Amino acid sequence: MKEESFKSIDEDLRNLAIDPDVLEKELAAELQGDPLDDIDFEAYASDKNKALTECQLGLQWLEKGHEERLQGLRVFCEHRDPRALPLLIPLLSEPCPVERMSAVYALGRNPSPKAVDILLGLLQSDSNAYVRKAAAWSLGNYSTSPVLDPLVRALHNDVAAVRLWAASSLAEVGSTSIENAERVVSELLLGLRIDQEPLVRSNCIWSLGRLYEQVFESMKSELIEGLFCILLNDLEPSVRYEARVALEQIQSPEVVTRLKKLVEDGVLL
After folding, report:
1. What is the CA radius of gyration of the chain?
2. Which of 45, 151, 190, 218 is deepest in the core (most CB within 10 A)?
3. pLDDT tens sequence across 113-144
4. Structural domains present in the chain
5. Residue 217 Ramachandran class (φ > 0 left, ψ -120 to 50 alpha, else beta)
């Protein structure tokens, strides 16, 4: 996932200001942090014995009280263990939003077909945007399930933090077939044109870059034109930079020539 996606809780609160009452009433007293912000997506435990010990403790914690369950959930946000699945899925229905959110992340790390429908329901209708954000991320790990349409709806209709992760997860869904890639690229290009949040537009660009090789030539041309439009017209420098990086990674003589001319003409540095 993009580095810019890992935002602090303070920034998440600003992004999720659309849900002030929910956040104030449900999270203010106990939210310690968003598990997604703490997961190291590159590093896994090198010591297998240590990992096994942590998982064993995590399984025990999941069967205890609220505080212990939160500790157990954090274990399975980092580790994969099929033994945790029967204990994780029921926690998706917990009244505490922190537990629901953490269980969603844990089931992104430990995917289970039995969790798909519940995760989709949370993405669509959970009252808490942190939970929906978690679902948008986790469903990217269920890319062979019927998650495309729900993620597209989230991309276009939810709050910024949820849209951001929907854009990233759609890259995973698009990679499963040419048909899905064509649909996802079309929706990401739409998001790139209309979304008001720079971070969301940046993640749309990141996903478009990943899907370029997956689509037909006509869609490749549309994708390239969309990126050039952003490169030349977006008001946010970071988004223009992302578009340039994505274009430079496309192995096309035409793209190279166009970028070179923009530099020669002084449009690009």
Report:
1. 20
2. 151
3. 999 999 999 999 999 999 999 999 999 999 99
4. 1-142 (no CATH), 145-269 (1.25.10.10)
5. alpha
